[in-house]
Amino acid sequence: MASMVDWELAVTVGGRLAGPGPEVTREHAEATVAQLRADADRSTGLVREFTGLQAAERTAPVLVVDRQGWVEANAAGFATMLEPVIRRLEEKKGPATGLSLAVGSRVTGGEVGVLLGFLATKVLGQFDPFHEPSGRLLLVAPNVVHVERELRADPDDFRLWVCLHEETHRVQFTAVPWMRDHLFSEFEALASTVDPASVLQDGLKRASEALRSGGNLLEAFGSPEQREILDRVTGVMSLLEGHADVVMDGVGPQVIPSVAKIRAAFDRRRAGVGVLDRLLRRLLGLDAKMAQYRDGAKFVREVVDRVGMAGFNAVWERAENLPGKAEITDPDAWVRRVL
Known about the structure:
Layout: H1 7-18, H2 26-51, E1 62-65, H3 67-93, H4 98-119, E2 125-128, E3 136-140, H5 141-151, H6 155-175, H7 178-192, H8 196-212, H9 224-255, H10 259-270, H11 275-283, H12 286-312, H13 325-328, H14 331-338
Parallel strand pairs: 1-3
Antiparallel strand pairs: 2-3
């Protein structure tokens, strides 16, 4: 892996760009960490009761981290996800050596570091399914404090609200153990379609065309076969994110007095706060990520309204029951096919 990406440089660049976050006293920081851990523990039972999903006990630990810790964790996650792609490239081209290895890996490491540094200031929490042996949940304390201040939200309410969403992801993967292997197999399938010659010859042209047409960099390297795989992955990610949003808003009114105010303010924030921020979000495909929350939540709500939560939970029984990208926007089609 080190032959193509300097991960140590990526972590250094990402941490420096992200910065430490808002200024807080040591006592405030310690209290925030303790509360996030307690809220994550409290959320487990609330998520189970609402969804009917039974997650395995004492798996997928909860870690409260700072921005540097998030960068380090995601550099490791990226390395795992990119391993099949890099292996494919090296099989086609052969491993780089000498000066080209040193320069190329540092350039790529710097680019990955810039991406991680930007994202490290935005993410409130994240479930990392690829961490051995069963994943881990990361809660980014400085970002939680920053956003709750920005929204002028009640800290107790906001922290529990965030934990409900992220804990739902932890329950999804621990209650549905095949999901992790399924996603990784999709990345393996995507890697098998990589053509190094095509990437080198046509990549910049396709990237330029995608951006001019209002797309993003993730869309620039999509052959028909890759599109098919990405559509399946989009369907899964929309399901996971939408389901988590439904859970946090469904449980919220019972335990979070200001949940309606928080949701309204948070949705306004998701649109981006400045021109540069909005541009970066579009280039990195984060606008598509926001659509996943919206479309996935609509799918979950409509299916649950029709067949109840027990009927909806058929989606977790096997990979064949997962909705495709088209079914996310056509819940009736999924109900007809699966139920």
